[in-house]
Protoheme IX farnesyltransferase (Paracraurococcus ruber), 313 residues
Amino acid sequence: MSDLTASARPDALAAQPDLSEVGDWLTLLKPRVVSLVVLTGVVGLLVAPGRLPPALAIAAVLCIALGAGAAGAINMWYDRDIDARMKRTATRPIPAGRIAPGAALAYGVGLAMASVLIMGLATNWMAAGVLALSILFYVGVYTMWLKRRTSQNIVIGGAAGAFPPVIGWAAVTGHVTLEPLVLFAIIFFWTPPHFWALSLFAHADYERVGVPMLPVTHGAKETRKQVLVYTLVLLPLTLAPWALGFAGWAYAAAAVLLGAEFLRQSIAVYRDAQDAAGRSLTKDAPARKAFRYSLSYLGLLFIALAVDRMILG
């Protein structure tokens, strides 16, 4: 009996899935980015007038997640050359040699096509069209055109990440109105201070591979200034849902409180000069804190909108 058990063990082990390989395929989808995309997409779906049947709502959210993940996979395929030379990205599955570039591209394109097709069949073709536009914008406009050519890459390219609430809204209503465009604008103007805070402590990587992020082309001081400028533009804009009658006082109060902290963090970034003379930022540098807070800020802002609309009316 023990001989039979021993002889069977290698086959049993071979039949088990390689979880590390599964993890690599999931990594291609940029799950941390997808989680925020899904959250804003879900809020767009929840606050839209009307309701989808639960099964179709789940399908719509899944399509938003797959579409965002597909764009991330194609982005990793295209950027595999610079990813291999950047400390922050060198261990990604493609530059590390764990997934072949061609397989990653096929994976991304296949998921992108499936997400758009399923969205169209499950909800409507307006939502599918906006989803397709978001994928094409991230891959074609940001990744392939802007990222390596201009310091305004993240400003213009940031529109790609602003589409999810519009997609969610369109999935329910079949059209796009002013309300989801306001949510689009909030994410659009949130993206530069969020990403430039990151670029302040990752500028050495970008400089090494020739990506013209703002700290590389205009210096850290100008980048810190732009973080503050875009934050000052963003904060009044977050009150637009309340001003337009689309949200109530609960959302407005949350927007003010969250925005006050974002402003405080951005002022700290503006005043900090740790990055002078190319020095690396410490772990507790304001730019690092502002980057981490910006992630929480956007998520909490959209959650506040959903709570205000759905629970408080």
The longest helix spans residues 178-209. Confidence is low (pLDDT under 50) at residues 1-10. The CA atoms of residues 104 and 168 lie 27 Å apart. DSSP finds 14 helices and no strands in the chain.
